[in-house]
Write a structure and sequence with these properties.
Layout (H helix, E strand, L loop, with lengths): L17 H11 L4 E5 L2 E4 H17 L7 E5 L4 H12 L3 E5 L5 H10 L4 E5 L3 H5 L9 E5 L10 H6 L2 H13 L5 E3 H7 L17 E6 L9 E5 H14 L9 E4 L6 H12 L4 E4 L8 H8 L3 E4 L1 H9 L1 H4 L8 E4 L6 H13 L6 E5 L9 E2 L12 E2 L4 E5 L13 E6 L6 E2 L3 H7 E3 L5 E11 L5 E6 L4 E3 L2 E3 L1 H8 L5 E11 L3 E10 L8 H15 L8 E4 L13 H13 L1
Parallel strand pairs: 1-11, 3-4, 3-5, 4-8, 5-6, 6-7, 10-11, 10-12, 12-13, 13-14, 26-27
Antiparallel strand pairs: 1-2, 8-9, 9-19, 14-15, 15-16, 17-18, 18-21, 20-21, 21-22, 23-24, 25-26
Helix pairs in contact: 1-2, 1-3, 2-3, 2-8, 9-10, 12-14
Length: 571
């Protein structure tokens, strides 16, 4: 706690809903910009007007308090209106990825018995075929061009408006039953009196349902309470008191269907009078133009975002003095990548360094962060206000001593209320310890130093057991990343008849070294491994690739690489 400085170590939290907190901010800052969508600026006053219209629309479609309203969308204004409108009428927002497979969408809808679905147009072809297998009675189709300004050059470059319009015409020409566009939906609620709209929610009520990353299996519906959302917002404000000020902005890259994007990118910013400069999709090749145009105060993303910055030559020459805070989360940021980005930011005039934090969907998104003024290399930081962490022997509740690697457990107001309709999995993850607190068993390996800083090791399920030895892929990746030619490296365990498993490395080389002999780079990699790792930890195979598979939110899809190798061995 000595590293908190003047920050509050404990806070008082509101007893209402996520809608209540945004309404409170709008009352204080009605004329400030809440959302900026390709230069279409939506003030806090207008935001509340649009949320109210959407709330009346949902009531007209038959929404009742406690219902789950499903929202399948990228970052566009209508999706934000829908999420907070659901909260206003006492419903739960069931939010999921618009590029989910048809069967996934069916399962997400059926899990919560959703009768109303708000979906972006690109998902319609997958949705249409499974709707008869669900309880959905009304679908509202939204589009990235609904709020797109006609003269937005940047927006037109990212969204092909002509093709989108043609697709919408094709969809509605078929006159699908119970399908409305956004304007028709709002028109449905025009006759509903404003006084009939409000349904008060408690802090303990579920505000949103998000889905776990699914990188190790089938996604689970994670129930997040109003308290968890509102607590995290106040905790981040307390942790960044000088940076999180009304009127400042964030580049809204992280998607709303991810806890990091919804929790930090939208709810935190919208409850503090700040602005989210929304992007419906991320284009690494145009990232320089996006940054130059938006000039955000905050940049929040997964490590692959910062990897993209390094690969973009125009960004490396840009004036980035506008950037006050850069936060990395969602996946582990390697020390070499952080060092390279920090050097680039300094050369480009920014006074910030990349701040590494840690969170998971089961705790909404952020639990630990490095204080800006006292960051520790390779650490994911210290718990923010009212959150606590401990390291336990995996598979037990036995706390380990300082410096020992074990499973990271977390408790605080941010933790989920449970997995939807999955009691066994909930009880495995949420465990009441002897101290009386309910702790989230994260499934991540970490250690804690004497100051309370936490150091992420890796996912528990990623650990490789080779000839009885425990091998941690992250340690091998760290050694490989010391080679200057390497942009990114990922290590997985692959089957081996003699050892059970061996470590295999997948490596992507920096653009400027694409013509360098792979044999030479391999020799450098093995030299670093021999210097920093025990012999049993050395990668037994190294494969060079142009890119690595990613999950839907931009993390490296370790399981895909491992599955490929397992199938190859069987073949």
């Amino acid at each position: 706690m000595k590293f908190y400085g003047d920050r509050a170590k404990s806070l008082k939290y509101p007893v209402g809903s996520i809608y209540d907190e945004v309404e409170r901010a709008a009352g204080k800052y009605p004329d400030l910009i809440a959302l900026n969508y390709f230069d279409k600026k939506i003030s806090y006053s207008e935001l509340m007007t649009q949320i109210d219209k959407a709330a009346r629309g949902f009531i007209a479609l038959g929404a009742q308090k406690g219902d789950a309203i499903s929202i399948c969308s990228a970052n566009i204004p209508e999706a934000i209106f829908a999420i907070y409108a659901a909260s206003k009428i006492g419903c739960v927002a069931n939010v999921f990825h618009p590029l989910s497979a048809p069967t996934e969408i069916r399962d997400y809808l059926n899990l919560v018995e959703s009768k109303i679905l708000v979906a972006i147009d690109v998902s319609w072809s997958n949705i249409e075929q499974i709707l008869p297998e669900t309880d959905v009675q009304e679908t509202v189709l939204i589009s990235p061009i609904d709020s797109l300004p006609v003269l937005s050059k940047l927006g037109m470059n990212l969204i092909n408006a002509v093709d989108v319009r043609k697709n919408l015409v094709k969809i509605f020409q078929k006159k699908p039953k119970n399908l409305l566009n956004w304007e028709e939906f709002l028109g449905q609620g025009a006759h509903i009196a404003r006084t009939d709209v409000r349904e008060r929610q408690r802090a303990s009520d579920t505000a949103v349902i998000l889905y776990s990353g699914g990188t190790t299996g089938k996604s689970k519906g994670v129930a997040i309470s109003n308290l968890a959302c509102n607590a995290m917002s106040l905790q981040l404000k307390a942790f960044f008191p000088d940076e999180a000020k009304p009127g400042r902005s964030l580049l809204g890259i992280m998607p709303i269907f991810h806890g990091f994007g919804l929790g930090v990118g939208f709810h935190f910013f919208l409850t503090q009078g700040m602005c989210n400069k929304m992007l419906p999709k991320f284009d690494a090749k145009k990232f320089d133009r996006i940054l130059q145009h938006a000039k955000p105060d905050f940049l929040v993303g997964v490590p692959t975002l910062y990897e993209a910055m390094l690969r973009n030559r125009k960004i490396r020459k840009m004036d980035l003095s506008f950037l006050r805070v850069a936060i990395s989360g969602g996946d582990n940021l390697s020390a070499p990548l952080k060092m390279a980005v920090d050097e680039m930011l300094a050369k480009c005039g920014s006074k910030t360094k990349v701040v590494q934090g840690y969170g998971l969907t089961e705790c909404l998104c952020v639990v630990t962060v490095n204080p800006l003024e006292c960051q520790k290399d390779e650490s994911i930081g210290i718990p923010i206000a009212d959150n606590y962490a401990k390291i336990v022997q995996p598979g037990t509740q036995t706390e380990l001593s300082i410096g020992k690697v074990g499973e990271l457990c977390l408790t605080g107001p941010n933790i989920m209320t449970g997995y939807i309709n999955q009691e066994r999995e909930t009880n495995q993850t949420l465990q009441r310890h002897a101290d009386g607190h309910v702790w989230v068993h994260t499934g991540d390996l970490a250690r804690m130093d004497k100051d309370g800083y936490i150091f992420f090791t890796q996912r528990l399920k990623r650990m490789i057991i080779s000839s009885g030895y425990n091998i941690y892929p992250s340690q091998i990746e760290e050694a490989i990343m010391k080679v200057p030619e390497v942009l990114i490296a990922t290590v997985v365990g692959i089957p081996d008849e003699y050892r059970g498993q061996i470590a295999k490395a997948f490596v992507v080389v920096k653009d400027e070294y694409r013509r360098t002999s792979h044999a030479d780079i391999r020799d450098k990699i093995m030299s670093e491994c021999k210097q920093h790792l025990a012999k049993y930890e050395w990668p037994r195979d190294i494969e060079f690739r142009d890119s690595l598979p990613k999950t839907k939110i931009g993390k490296v899809a370790y399981h895909e690489l491992a599955e490929e190798e397992t199938l190859d061995k069987k073949a």
